[in-house]
Design a protein that fits this description.
This protein is mainly β. It has six domains: 114 residues, Alpha-Beta Plaits (2-Layer Sandwich); 413 residues, Rossmann fold; 86 residues, Immunoglobulins (Immunoglobulin-like); 77 residues, Immunoglobulin-like, CATH 2.60.40.10; 87 residues, Immunoglobulin-like (Sandwich); 76 residues, Immunoglobulin-like (Sandwich), CATH 2.60.40. It contains 13 helices and 56 strands. The strands form 15 sheets. Strands 9-8-10-12-13-14 form a six-stranded parallel β-sheet, sandwiched between helices. Strands 26, 28, 29, 31, 32 and 33 form a six-stranded mixed β-sheet that branches. Strands 36, 37, 39, 40 and 41 form a five-stranded antiparallel β-sheet that branches. Helix 7 runs parallel beside helix 10 and helix 11 packs across helix 12. The longest helix has 23 residues. The N terminus is likely disordered.
């Protein structure tokens, strides 16, 4: 039996109430709104609704999420409310997004068919990304060693506003759908570039899955798309780089995302953890615990998704990165990745890598993998950062794309299913010489009820055993007690009853035949499928991560070199060579190997190079890479039949490669030994080009890819200006190129004919100026004449300046033909009045002069002599006599 809240007042003052602890929030809200709400009905409200409801007016409408146990009964209830509009339905969890007033919501809460009410919040893009360095997550090594794994044949959805679909980095790979927002966002373009950019604009614009198809979906409703839509458009990864606020509860949106993966097992949702890492929760179990439990959005409390925090380029978890745990103590975020400006880019890195893994699996198996397998691989292959082991700041670690792909292609995973009370065994032969053995169990868990105190439904247990020695190991579990000291504690081995991911590691394991055991501790819906990924990390191993053979190191600036080392030695000697290893120069004699990186500023040159790390008595060489810098390519001319591109002469480079934009990517067109290229338009209709230097037959870092027709250069003439300087006119000419120009002539318009002022033979530079000391009052018009060696003549557009001498006003032409306009030039910044009188003294026209150049027709005045006076503040400023013929 439910008890109604009773509030007793005397003389307008509240003096007594009988409240259970969870009723305390009601004191903050309008009494009339809750006077008839029972305890059970109050529990149906999400914490966000409870927190915000004080600001609701009874009549204004907003979007609420309403869910129930029976879809048809709930639909009947909603359709019976004439003022409620159903705007979206997510049927797998009996969830409706409705537009309703607070009064309507109160009427719904007291109905048994409504079990949970939440509301739409305004999503915020969690910052854009800059300084992208894909080597921090070893993506560069995947691009180098597995170039055929680029996400081809997969489709990603960017759930936020609309990216720039015309960006050449998405050329031929953008899929228009009915899901897209109509609002453009540079943030969405950034995310799409990180995930799947084609690298057409520049070296750093190449995304993780550069062969994947890109689509967009708006985030006006913070719920999954209709399940059929994912299938219709072939979407297998959806990226969510946005958040709302700190919302520590399992809402109807979290249940919907968990159900989305149940319905489509190959669909992976990747969320940014948020940038609220220094903020404090106020509504959940972890209320008041500063710096923890600040994931931004209740939808990120889902179990079958991946949330991603951010680290800097040297693997430090940045303070703004949102931390776990989830509302019920689960590990959040699951992963971190490099992003200097927020977790948006971190999520995009994981989304891109997920597409690569999906393609790699599909190429071998003919179908997409389940998201649980991809999640298991990503979490198991991540590099441990921050504190040792799993934690609430970095989750299972920093994404390692190279190890993730290796796990998949080497088939280092198991799959199975288990029922309640059943144990399934998987045999694992562990070789000698390992530094660490790591295994991670993941399963797609059914959605919990919205508002559940614990999200886990099916509870599986992972153990690792070595039967020969009668040894066994449990997974690592964190202390989820709601205080800072507990949340900072190291993980311990024990049974996990919260997470649908469990991980076991053993340092320096003995070789032998092990067993990975999965026990169905408590499974509501049997059987439960699962995946286990495992990884062997060897001792005494050194591997270069960056640079690889496809990478470029920038000269005369800090570059971060990266490696993986399991040697016990603490330091190594780092050398480099720019002559194929014939001679070596030492960079540092005592590099800390355990850091895994070193910042190096190489010589400012265009060359190929090698790195060498000496560890004890062993030398480890990198791939041959290039050292080069970006340079600019300019348009010399853009004429009707041809165009010219040119660039600076680079010391040490004798050949350059011209690239053109193809159907999807920049592709080699031709190699040249000059520092310019002239192309006929008929043979080269493409508008986008780039140039790369060939450094010892390897491509260095290339120029930006650009549209040569939008660079402001016409047919040789880039700009031509005329400006007044005292009593002189100064002409400025900027040429795109002097290629094949025989002469340059300055010309001035006099009496409807251009006369030559000066001619320059065989011009050698691209910038010229000329001073005209013989200005005429009124307009002075000029042009430039170019004569080419072929005999072709090119004229600039005319450029004019106005010269007043000592006058303030000038009228021209005078005399003026009746079919011509009359122009009045004004050097007065104020508005004045032009009054026109005929020869009899009658005023025949009045015009306002409100600009420097004022033009009006004279046809209606008729032929004859007219007097024009300019009046300002009632006083004549100047008088003219004009003859119209």
């Amino acid at each position: 039996m439910h008890k109604s809240i009773r509030i007793v007042t005397c003389a307008g003052n509240l003096y007594k109430w009988i409240l259970r602890p969870w009723y305390v929030l009601l004191f903050l809200f309008p009494m009339e709104a809750y006077s008839q709400i029972t305890a059970t009905e109050f529990k149906k409200m999400s914490p966000v609704v409870k927190q915000k409801s004080r600001g609701f007016s009874s009549g204004s409408k907003t979007i609420f999420f309403v869910s129930g146990k029976d879809r048809d009964s709930l639909l009947f209830l909603l359709q019976g409310k004439k003022d409620i509009e159903i705007v979206y339905e997510y049927s797998p969890t009996n969830l409706f997004a409705i537009k309703a007033s607070w009064k309507d919501i109160l009427s719904i809460l007291n109905n048994e068919h409504a079990s949970f009410v939440d509301m739409q919040r305004k999503p915020k893009e969690e910052l854009a990304l800059s300084n992208l360095d894909i080597s921090a997550n070893k993506v560069n090594l995947v691009h180098n060693q597995f170039p055929f794994f680029n996400g081809q044949g997969t489709t990603v959805s960017i759930k936020e506003n609309h990216p720039d679909s015309s960006d050449i980095d998405f050329r031929g790979r953008y899929l228009s759908t009915t899901l897209s927002s109509s609002v453009f966002s540079t943030h969405a373009s950034d995310m799409a570039t990180i995930i799947a950019g084609g690298g057409n604009t520049y070296y750093e614009g190449k995304g993780v899955a550069w062969g994947a198809t890109i689509s967009s979906s708006g985030f006006d409703i913070l719920l999954p798309e209709a399940d059929a839509a994912y299938g219709q458009y072939g979407i297998s990864v959806q990226n969510h780089s946005y958040g709302t606020g700190i919302e520590n509860y399992y809402g109807s949106d979290a249940a919907a995302y968990d159900a989305s993966v149940i319905t489509r097992p190959d669909l992976l949702h990747v969320f940014s953890a948020g940038n609220s890492g220094m903020e404090t929760d106020t509504i959940g179990t972890y209320s008041g615990v500063t710096g923890y439990a600040n994931i931004t959005g209740s939808f990120k409390m889902a179990k079958n998704i991946i949330t991603v925090g951010h680290v800097d380029s040297i693997y430090n978890v940045l303070p703004p990165s949102s931390k776990g745990p989830a509302y019920d103590g689960r590990v959040k975020p699951e992963l971190v990745a490099f992003a200097e400006d927020g977790s948006s880019g971190s999520a995009a890195i994981v989304s891109g890598l997920s597409l690569v893994l999906q393609q790699a699996y599909k190429d071998s198996n003919g179908k997409l993998p389940t998201s649980a397998l991809i999640k298991s691989i990503l979490l198991n292959s991540a590099d441990d950062v921050d504190t040792k082991g799993i934690d609430y700041t970095s989750g299972y670690g920093n994404v390692n794309a190279y190890k993730a792909v290796q796990t998949l292609v080497r088939n280092r995973y198991f799959t199975g299913s288990v029922s309640s009370g059943q144990t399934v065994h998987h045999n694992l032969s562990v070789p000698a010489g390992l530094k660490q053995l790591k295994a991670t169990l993941t399963w797609t868990d059914p959605p919990a009820s919205p508002g559940a105190s614990k999200a886990l439904v099916n509870d599986l247990d992972l153990t690792l055993s070595l039967p020969a020695l009668n040894q066994s190991w449990l997974p690592w579990v964190l202390n989820s007690t709601a205080d800072i000291d507990s949340l900072k504690k190291m993980p311990v081995r024990k049974r996990d009853s919260l997470n649908n991911t469990e991980q076991i590691t053993i340092d320096n394991p003995l070789p032998g035949d092990y067993e990975l055991n999965v026990y169905g501790f408590d499974i509501i819906s049997s059987p439960q499928s699962y995946y286990i990924s495992y990884q062997f990390d060897s001792v005494d191993k050194f591997q270069w991560y960056y640079p690889s053979a496809n990478d470029n190191i920038f000269g005369n600036r800090l570059n971060t070199l990266r490696w993986d080392c399991s040697y016990p030695d603490s330091t190594g000697r780092l050398d480099y060579s720019i002559d194929d290893g014939n001679t070596w120069q030492t960079i540092n004699n005592e590099v800390l190997l355990s850091k895994g990186y070193y910042k190096w500023s190489p010589p400012d040159s265009f060359t190929t190079a090698l790195l060498r790390m000496r560890v004890a008595t062993s030398d480890f060489l990198s791939d041959t890479f290039t050292i080069s810098d970006r340079f600019d390519v300019h348009v010399g001319f853009n004429c009707t039949d041809s165009f010219l591109l040119f660039w600076p002469d680079i010391p040490g480079v004798s050949k350059y490669r011209i690239l053109k934009l193809g159907e999807k990517y920049m592709a080699p067109l031709t190699d040249v030994t000059d520092t310019f290229w002239v192309a006929g338009k008929q043979a080269n209709p493409v508008l986008y080009y780039a140039v790369t230097p060939l450094v010892n037959n390897k491509e260095g870092v290339r120029s930006y890819g650009f549209n040569y027709t939008t660079q402001g250069t016409g047919c040789y003439i880039q700009s031509f200006l005329a400006q007044l300087s005292g009593t002189n006119g100064v002409l400025y000419l900027q040429l795109g190129s002097v290629y094949h120009i025989r002469s340059l002539t300055w010309q001035k318009l006099l009496l409807n004919e251009y006369i030559n002022l000066q001619t320059i033979q065989l011009p050698e530079v691209d910038s010229y100026d000329y001073t005209d000391a013989t200005l005429t009052k009124g307009v002075n018009t000029y042009r430039v004449k170019l004569e080419l060696t072929s005999g072709q003549v090119i004229y600039s557009d005319p450029a004019s300046l106005y010269y007043f001498g000592r006058d303030i006003y000038i009228v021209y032409p005078n005399p003026v033909a009746q079919n011509q306009p009359l122009t009045v030039l004004s050097n007065d910044p104020d508005i004045t009045i032009l009054e026109v009188f005929n020869s009899y003294g009658a005023k025949v026209m009045v015009k306002q002069l409100d600009s420097q150049v004022n033009t009006f027709p004279v046809a209606r005045l008729g032929k004859g002599i007219y007097f024009m006076q300019i009046v300002k503040d009632g006083r004549r400023q100047q008088l003219f006599k004009v003859f119209i013929y």
